[in-house]
Amino acid sequence: MSPRRRAALALLCLGVTLAVVPRWWMGRDARAFLAAERSAQHELARRVAAAIEAHPERTFFGGSELRFDGQSAVAIYQMTLLGLGQVLLAHPDLREQYLPAMRLAAHRLADPRTLVYAGTVYPRHGVVAMGPREGHAYLGYVNLGLGMLRAVEPETPLAALHDRISDALAARLFASPTGLIETYPAETWPPDVAAVAGSVGLHARVTGRDREAQLAAWADRFAACSIHSSGYVVQRVRSGTCVPVDAPRGSGTAVAAYFLSFAVRGLARRLHEGLVATGMRSLLGFGALAEYAPGFEGSGDVNAGPIVFGVSVGATGFGLGSARAHDDGETFTRLYRTLHLFGAPVDDSAGRWYATGGVLGNALLLAMLTARAE
Amino acid sequence: MRVRARVAVVLGLMLALVGAQWLLGSWLADRDPVAAAFLGDYVTLALAPALLVSRLATVLLVPGWVVYLLVTTALLERGSSPE
Q1: Does B43 reach chain A within 8 Å, measured CB to CB?
Q2: How distant is the Cα of B1 from the closest Cα of chain A, in angstroms?
Q3: Tens digits of per-residue pLDDT, A46-95?
């Protein structure tokens, strides 16, 4: 065979296999997660639960940055609670296996010593007390976790704290002319506010309270202030105003779409559709989400994670939860293939673990891959 | 026989590659690449991207390479056949 023919044959083989094999190989598990299959959820859940139970301290990274260390611990416990809770809602027979890890995560999440930073910028940590003009929107993450524990264990001793935080956050949220409240003094992050609204909606759901009208009115104010014409949520605004001080970002939009699925389904769906229309990038059946809306640019940070060719780990990871929560199987499958390729899952007797994610990444993925479409 | 030998070599290489990736993945799974950045664990920080590049190459290139080898081997075998 001539070298020319040989090269043509090589290209043909490469082209045909590229179009067929990678998407099949990397997408095999997507259907199982989409169908909320017990084995797929259980394998990841038991490894995440074991990691939480085996960890002896409240925080994980022991870094010198007080704020990041506390916030990452809050994210790990919150996502563990959301993920394990979603697994239990789908498979109630696993309740006894996962409730101990959920209780441990909830107590650490509600412990003011986990996010020490909040008590250094406010007179007191919001779990202890909230002054009348203080936002404390970081509590949205805490409160969503507590809400999920309560959804699977209504008799939890943390129910009274959950009621108190929910009422305090709801009062702030519904009184805000912009629909926004501060996370910390002089810092207003709309994705954090989406967590607050999600937690208020989940609290209403688990306690049987009717907050639908208040949440609908809030959603209009939030949308007017925080959603850019691209469909992306602005990452940060100047406190007390709707003036952006950061770009519309994919990571914030995706996580907001997931959080709001607990509270205002219409707004959550609008964010998800904007996310896909503006940010979806696909190649060979693999999908990823752009971090910055068209016309904006910037670098990676703790929210976005690394950004490669304009798409971010954060937007793509949270996008899985948004797609799952909105029953968008096509988007979910494309994003899942990318996760499977770069997450490098390892299956052994302990369960499944995405090797490149660490405990933060795996807790987050558990929540995103098991998000509920109800 | 020649076809069988080439197929065996190709499959052996495939298995070795996947096995090496599994070992590396298992090793990384016992560590935490996110924490490594804060703890200054440069070995983990270096091996995580190595695993990703290796997975990318395996998924994108190896299937095509295997098919190409099988096709050229079969053609070669047919061409050299006394029939």
Answers
A1: no
A2: 20
A3: 999 999 999 998 888 876 668 888 999 999 999 999 999 999 999 999 99
Report the residue of chain A nearest B63, measured CA to CA: A17
* Number of domains observed in the structure of chain A: 1
Residue B6 counted as domain residue: yes
What are the Cα distances from residue A356, in Å, to A55, A313, A350, B10, B48?
A: 19, 12, 17, 28, 6
R_g (Cα) of chain A, nearest Å: 21
Q: How many CB atoms lie within 10 A of CB B76?
A: 14
CATH code, domain carrying A287: 1.50.10.10
Whether B18 is covered by a domain: the verdict is: yes
Rg of chain B over all Cα atoms, to the nearest angstrom: 19
Instruction: Provide, as residue numbers in chain B, all residues whose Cβ is less than 8 Å from the Cβ of A345.
Output: 25
Q: Is residue A257 one of the residues assigned to a domain?
A: yes
- pLDDT score of B7: 75
What CA–CA distance (Å, rounded) separates A84 from B32?
21
Q: Do A18 and B60 count as a contact with CB atoms less than 8 A apart?
A: yes
B61 contacts in chain A (CB < 8 Å)? 14
| pLDDT tens digit sequence for B13-54 | 888 888 888 888 888 888 888 788 777 788 888 888 888 888
- Chain B residue closest to A355 (CA)? B29
Domain with A73 in it: 28-369
Q: How many percent of chain A have pLDDT more than 90?
A: 90
- Residue numbers of the domain that contains B29: 2-78
CA distance A165 to chain B (A): 31
> Taking Cα atoms as reference points, which of A9, A43, A19 lies closest to residue A29?
A43
Chosen from B34, B62, B73 to mutate, greatest number of chain A CBs within 10 A? B34
Is some CB atom of chain A closer than 8 A to the CB atom of B17?
A: no
Residue B83 placed within a domain? no
Quote the number of domains for chain B.
Answer: 1
Tokens of A271: 């964010």
